[in-house]
Amino acid sequence: MLNIVIFGAPGSGKGTQSDMIIKKYGLFHISTGDVLRAEMKNGTELGKIAEGYISKGQLVPDELIIDMLAKVLDSNEETKNGVIFDGFPRTIPQAEALKAMLKERGAEVSAVIGLEVEEEELIDRLIKRGQVSGRSDDNLETIKSRLDVYHNQTTPLKDYYINEKKYKAIHGMGTIESIFAAIEKEIDNL
Ligand code: AP5
C-alpha cells in the first residue's frame, strides 16, 4: 500500500500533481488546504478559526490540523488502500503524528515527493491563479507571508525525511507532464 506525501512550497504544484497521481495510482487524495477551505465555506467552528490563520498566510495550529486529519482518515475506508497527503505534514509535530497514525494502521509513509521550484516562479504562478480563482490567500502580501512560513516552519521537514531516507527531490519546473513523468519514475521504483 502506498502512502505518499507530496511536499513543496505554496505554488510548487502539489495539487496539480496530486490530481495526476490519483488518476494513475488510485490513491485517496487528502489536501488539508481543500478540507480547510470546505470548512470555511460551510461556516463551521473549525472553518471560522482557520480563516483567521489562512487569510494571514499562517499555519493553522497543529492540534486542530492533526485532529482534522485523523477524522478524515477514520471516516474514509478507501484511505486503507493508500493515500496521497497534500499539504500535510507541514511541521515536525505533524510528521510525528502522521507516523503514529499510519503505524496504528500497520502502515508507514512510503515516500515524500519534494517539488523544488524557484521562488520567482512560485510567486508568478500564485499571482496568476489569484487573478482567476479568487483564492483569498493568493495576493502578494499573503503569498510572501506563506513563503516565509514555509521557509521557517516547513522546510525543516525536508531534513527530517532525508534522515528517514524517504525524500525524493523532483525538479518542479517545466511542463506539468514532464514533472509527472519524473514523479512516476520515483513511485514505480518503490
Ligand atoms: P494549501 O491549500 O495547502 O496551499 P499551499 O501549500 O499554499 O499550496 P497551493 O495550493 O497554493 O499550491 P500547490 O503547491 O498545491 O500548487 P498548485 O498545484 O495549486 O494551504 C493553504 C493554507 O491552509 C495554508 O497557508 C495554511 O494556512 C493552511 N494549511 C493547510 N494545510 C495545513 C497544515 N498541514 N498545517 C497548518 N496549516 C495548514 O499550483 C499552483 C498554480 O500553479 C496553479 O495555478 C497551477 O495551475 C500552476 N502550475 C502548477 N504546475 C505548474 C507548472 N509545472 N508550470 C506552470 N504552472 C503550474
UniProtKB/TrEMBL annotation:
Q: What is its EC number?
A: 2.7.4.3
User: What are the binding positions for AMP in this chain?
Assistant: 32, 37, 58-60, 87-90, 94, 135, 146
Gene Ontology molecular function terms on file: AMP kinase activity; ATP binding
Superkingdom of origin organism:
Bacteria
Q: Which SUPFAM superfamilies has this protein been placed in?
A: P-loop containing nucleoside triphosphate hydrolases
The answer to keyword Isomerase applying to this record is: no
Q: Name one Pfam family in it.
A: ADK
Q: Name one GO cellular component term.
A: cytoplasm
- Compartments (UniProt record): Cytoplasm
Metabolic or biological pathway, per its Swiss-Prot or TrEMBL entry: Purine metabolism; AMP biosynthesis via salvage pathway; AMP from ADP: step 1/1
Q: Where is this region: NMP?
A: 31-60
Q: What is known of its domains?
A: Consists of three domains, a large central CORE domain and two small peripheral domains, NMPbind and LID, which undergo movements during catalysis. The LID domain closes over the site of phosphoryl transfer upon ATP binding. Assembling and dissambling the active center during each catalytic cycle provides an effective means to prevent ATP hydrolysis.
Stated role: Catalyzes the reversible transfer of the terminal phosphate group between ATP and AMP. Plays an important role in cellular energy homeostasis and in adenine nucleotide metabolism.
**Official protein name in the record:** Adenylate kinase
In which organism is this protein found? Coprobacter fastidiosus NSB1 = JCM 33896
